[in-house]
Amino acid sequence: MRIRSLVVLMALSFSALSFAGEAEVKWEGVDKYTDFEPANGHEERYQEKVKGQLAEHIQTLAKELPEGQKLTLTVTDVDLTGRLEPTFGRSTSNYVRIVREIDFPRIHFNYQLTDSSGQVIKEGQEKLKNMGFNYDSLASVKRRNDLYFEEEMLTRWFNETLREKS
């Protein structure tokens, strides 16, 4: 009888932990970001795609926050993995993004985590960089997701900074 009561009590406590946090991502001073340009194509369209993909990733992470919590993140600088270098064809020059271990990703942002009543739980300013990324070991994954290393860096920060420790 005691074990059954304990199991029911544990089930009730786990069900009380509801995860449905949300996130809002803002982009400040995009035209001054360190490296936020496409290798080829229309710059504005590329930036909107990258902003959308990173915002979607942050919103997915925020769903793991307790219900009612909101993460507001204001991105102030982005330096994408790799570096743009010129290539020369028959009649025109293009650029290609070359990725080497010295061209690691960076992202700077301010964040604020609030509860359902709007009270600030945690806030800060972050300057993330992933100097230890290994492009060669993840080359096949990287080809499928252009922002793999940026998303990995944000996930690590989220898990270390905002995820509740049990």
Write a brief structural summary.
The chain has 166 residues and is α+β, with helices and mostly antiparallel strands.
Give an overview in words.
The structure is a single chain. This protein is of the alpha+beta class and 166 residues long. It has one domain (16-161). It is 33% helix and 28% strand. The chain contains 4 helices and 6 strands, in the order αβαβββββαα. It has helices at 2-16, 43-62, 139-144, 148-161; strands at residues 22-27, 70-79, 83-88, 93-98, 106-114, 120-129. It is elongated.
* Major sheet: arrangement of strands: 1-2-5-6
Following the backbone from N to C, one meets helices and strands in this order, namely: HEHEEEEEHH
Query: Nearest-angstrom radius of gyration?
Result: 20 Å
What would the average pLDDT be, to the nearest integer?
80
Main beta sheet strand tally, sense and closure: 4 strands, mixed
Which class best fits the helix and strand makeup? alpha+beta
* Total tally of structural domains: 1
Strand content: 25-35%
How many E strands?
6
**Shape category:** elongated
Give the helix proportion (percent range): 25-40%
- Poorly predicted ranges (pLDDT <50, ≥5 residues)? 1-16
How many separate helices?
Answer: 4
- Through-space gap between termini: 27 Å
What features would you highlight for this structure?
4 helices; 28% strand; two-stranded antiparallel ribbon; elongated; alpha+beta; four-stranded mixed β-sheet; 6 strands; 166 residues; disordered N terminus
